[in-house]
Design a protein that fits this description.
Layout: H1 13-21, H2 26-43, H3 49-54, E1 60-61, E2 63-66, H4 71-75, E3 86-87, H5 96-105, E4 115-120, E5 126-132, E6 156-160, H6 170-181, E7 185-189, H7 211-223, E8 229-234, H8 236-248, E9 256-260, H9 266-273, H10 277-294, H11 301-307, H12 310-314, H13 319-331, H14 336-342, E10 356-361, H15 374-379, E11 383-388, E12 397-398, E13 404-405, H16 406-419, H17 437-441, H18 462-466, H19 472-479, H20 486-490, H21 502-518, H22 524-537, H23 539-572
Parallel strand pairs: 6-7, 6-8, 8-9, 9-10, 10-11
Antiparallel strand pairs: 1-3, 2-11, 4-5, 5-7, 12-13
Helix pairs in contact: 2-23, 22-23
Family: Belongs to the AB hydrolase superfamily. AB hydrolase 4 family.
GO molecular function, one term: monoacylglycerol lipase activity
Organism: Prunus avium (Cherry)
């Protein structure tokens, strides 16, 4: 039967659609693809170039969190112009991931040479102390024989590197060169087994192992009693720094400190770094670094074979796996979470008695903003927390050529103003008859390594007590200036409310998940929840994303709609 006269269509309707879409110009497809690519960069990689463009490349203000009665803020930080100005990331490095990767692969570090000093610890371990003196970068002739005089009063900055990093890391070289160029001496305390030095004992460093730092600080203070000593911790080194300052309180012979991009809470950081695809890439990269640390020298392997699960270390795909096969076994921790809780520096923030500046980027792809102890920092009058919207992890590049690092300038300015003020910390006399409640709560057993650092074996704390006694009168003579001791005295009146336990948070989230699973399937709710989450993060970013999606997809959608309505009109008003 011939159906053509009856108007029956026997052809596939999608064929007409494909033919109509072929009439759309190629340029429309190109612009649509370009728009969707930009939307992907903006949302998934957090590329903020367009937002900076709309703001006239003015950058964003630095947010400061401090106690209203803090003498450190009013006497020191209030005079820091850099902390009260704006930070603008390098335009072509607007994404935190671009910044972090660029720092790791390139970094553009200045060229210079260190003076190396090998320091032997009480357990037989060895750490490399790499010095850069102000005379080394002032245009004079470099000589390894030039030693610092015993009575030298030039300030010394001690740097604690991050996970598997040493003195050759780009960000440390930026800090060292800038500090030495301003007239100060700087020394980098490399972790055990790093900096080209083999492990010489059964003890390995970790995110909470403060004994090495305590010993090095005590030795520097004994060798150069007239030189004010400042500490700068970076990433995991910042976690070790804050934990050390909280453990020893008033007893530390440290005038001031700076913590850059600290993970703060290792348990929250562990949950964060395994949450999304990009974070898992960082997790794998850090794990590879830890495995390389374990395989750095053939002399390391027998120790790992004897102290930890070497096969498990080689098969580890995340930091948590590495901790499970190394940290928990060597340090005799019951679980990985137990190790993270004991080595978390946020637990010690309340007892910090040294002027401390903390700098973090809210878009840090490695150390999440969720772990920042905002209320604890605000309650302690000795701490000022500075946060920026952008910066990545330890990057903070600025300028068109990314030649400078913002936090390096901010650190230098803070320490210089603190040094010229009356608020430098002075060590208190140690009382052997009493022990603080915080000291008694510190785990006296061995700490282990990794989870953003290395590994640690069983080492007691008996040596620590011998290194904590200092002479107050001698310290007062070295600084030769008045010191306001109300800083450490007033903070005792401020009680910090404890944060809810991480286990309770996990349990509550699991209960919420069960309640959601019991509800009937809803397709619209997840989409609505996603949109609400986007709008809560930043309404500007959300509507900007909607605008980009509409504008870039309109050439393609508009052409399709034009063809569609043209066919409809053709059916309604057939040609005569």
């Amino acid at each position: 039967m011939d159906c053509r006269g009856l108007g029956v269509v026997s052809e596939n309707p999608y064929v007409h659609l494909l033919n109509d879409l072929s009439l759309i110009p190629i340029s429309h497809y190109f612009f649509a693809f370009l728009g969707f690519s930009f939307a992907f960069l903006y949302h998934f990689l957090e590329f903020h170039f367009l937002q900076d463009l709309f703001n006239g490349f003015r950058g964003s203000l630095v947010s400061l969190t401090y106690n209203p009665s803090s003498p450190i803020y009013h006497g020191v930080v209030s005079k820091c112009r850099i902390l009260h100005a704006r930070y603008l990331a390098t335009p072509w490095l607007s994404s935190p991931h671009f910044q972090t990767v660029f720092l790791s692969l390139f970094g553009r570090p200045p060229a210079f040479s260190y003076r190396r000093e090998l320091f032997t610890l009480s357990d037989g371990g060895t750490v490399a102390l790499d010095w850069l003196l102000s005379s080394d970068v002032s245009g004079g002739v470099f000589s390894t024989n030039n030693a610092i005089p015993k009575g030298d009063t030039t300030p010394i900055v001690l740097v604690i590197p991050g996970l598997t990093s040493d003195s050759d890391a780009a960000y440390i070289k930026h800090l060292a060169f800038n500090t030495a160029k301003k007239g100060w001496n700087i020394v980098v305390s490399n972790h055990r087994g790093l900096g080209g030095i083999s492990v010489t004992s059964d003890c390995f460093y970790n995110a909470g192992w403060t004994e090495d730092l305590r010993t090095v600080v005590s030795n520097l203070h004994d060798e150069y009693p007239n030189a004010p000593l400042f500490l700068v911790g970076l990433s995991v080194g910042a976690n070790i720094l804050v934990k050390y300052l909280g453990e020893d309180g008033d007893k530390v012979p440290v005038a001031g400190a700076v913590a850059i991009c600290s993970p703060w809470d290792l348990l929250i950081g562990d949950r964060f770094i395994g949450r999304r695809l990009l974070q898992k890439i960082y997790d794998k990269a850090l794990t590879t670094g830890l495995q390389g640390y374990a395989q750095l020298s053939k002399r390391h392997q027998p120790r790992f074979l004897r102290l930890a699960n070497w096969e498990g270390i080689k098969k580890s795909r995340s930091i948590r796996d590495f901790d499970q096969h190394a940290t928990c076994i060597v340090g005799k921790f019951e679980t990985v979470d137990t190790y993270y809780r004991r080595c978390t520096s946020a637990n010690y923030v309340g007892n910090v008695s040294v002027p401390l500046l903390c700098i973090s980027a809210l878009d840090d792809p490695v150390c999440t903003r969720e772990a920042i102890p905002w209320e604890e920092c605000r309650a302690n009058m000795n701490i000022v927390l500075a946060t920026t919207k952008h910066g990545g992890h330890l990057a903070f590049f600025e300028g068109l050529t990314a030649a400078g690092i913002w936090w390096v300038r901010a650190t230098d300015e803070f320490l210089k103003i603190l040094h010229s003020s009356q608020y430098m910390h002075v060590q208190k006399m140690v009382s052997f008859g009493t022990q603080s409640s915080l000291d008694s709560s510190i785990d006296q057993g061995p700490y282990v390594n990794i989870a953003e650092d290395g590994m640690v074996a069983a080492v007691g704390n008996e040596q620590a007590k011998e290194n904590r006694t200092e002479d107050v009168l001698e310290q007062e003579k070295t600084h030769q200036r008045k010191t306001n001791e109300m800083v450490s005295g007033e903070q005792d009146d401020h009680m910090i409310k404890p944060e809810p336990c991480s286990a309770e948070i996990v349990q509550s989230s699991e209960q919420a998940t069960r309640r959601q699973d019991s509800k009937p399937l809803d397709v619209i709710t997840p989409v609505r929840r996603c949109l609400d989450r986007l709008s809560q993060q930043s309404r500007w970013s959300f509507w900007l994303l909607v605008y980009v999606a509409i504008v870039t997809s309109w050439p393609l959608v508009g052409s399709a709609l034009q063809i569609f309505f043209r066919k409809k009109l053709r059916n309604v008003f057939p040609a005569a």
